[in-house]
Predict the structure.
Amino acid sequence: MRLFLIFFFSLLLSGTVMAKENDLCICQTDTYPRVQVGIFKLGCRVWNAAQSCTKKMTVSFTESLDEILAKYPSAKKVKIGYVGHWASADQSTQFLQGTIVPLIQKYDVKIEIDNTACLATDNAYKIVNYLKTLNGEAEKITFRGNQAVSTGIWDKGLSGKNNFWALIKGDSLEVTFPACKEFENRGCMGSVQGGGTGVCQDEEAGSHVFLRCDQGGNEKHYKWTRLIPEFSIDAKSYYALVSEKHNLRGGYQFFTKETDALDFIELVTQDARQLLIYAAGRQYSY
C-alpha cells in the first residue's frame, strides 16, 4: 500500500509546472460528505506540493480566510486552492462576492483561485459579468475552474482528459479557454461526464467551438467530440452574448438539454438571431 501511494503521488506531481511565487497558499477542503473529507485533505496535500509558496496550509472551507490573512499582514500574493464538490459558476460568484472581494478590500492582496472541483466555470461569463460590477478589486482576481463535471486533482492518475478548464482574468476581464487539441478526441468518463459540454479554442481556425463528451457513431468509448454547427458562429461569442443577455444558470449547458431548447429559443431576443442553440446533438437557429 505504501509503495502504491508513493507511486500515485509521483504520478500526480510528474510534469507539474511550479506556479509563480506566492506569499501564501491556502487549500480549502469541502466539509461534506463527511466520509470524503479525508480524501479531500489528501487532495490538498497533492495540490500544495505542486505550489511554490512561502507558506502553505490546508483548511476547511468553513474556516475564516479573514482570520488567516490577519496573521500574515505582509502577504501580497495569495493562491487559494479548493478540493471537494462544487455546484456552478453561481456558487463561484457567491464565493467571490462574499469572501474574496472583502479580503482584497481589507488586505489589498492579489488572489489567484484554483478550484479543482466540478462546474466552477460552467458559465465563465457569469463570473466575468460579476467582476465588471467591481471597482479596482477585479484587477487582483484570477479564477481557474472546470467547465464540466471533472475528476479534479486526481486527473493525472486517471485515463483520458477530464478537467475541461476555463480561466478568468480580472485585470483584462477576459476568459481563456483551452486549445481544442488538448481535449478533442481524448477520452472522457461517460459514466459521469456523458453529455457534458465545454468551449475550446480552435487555434488553426481562429475560432471557438463546443466539445461534448459523447460516444458518437459505433464507438464503445466516450471522448470529447466537436459539435458541428449548421451556420458559421464562434462559440465564445455566442456563449458571452447569451450569458450577458439572459444571465442563465449553466450558460451553454442550459441549451445542451433537449427539453430546454425550445424554452431557450423563446428567451433569445431579436438582436441574438442567427445564434445556434445546441440540443442533444441537433442545432436550432432563431
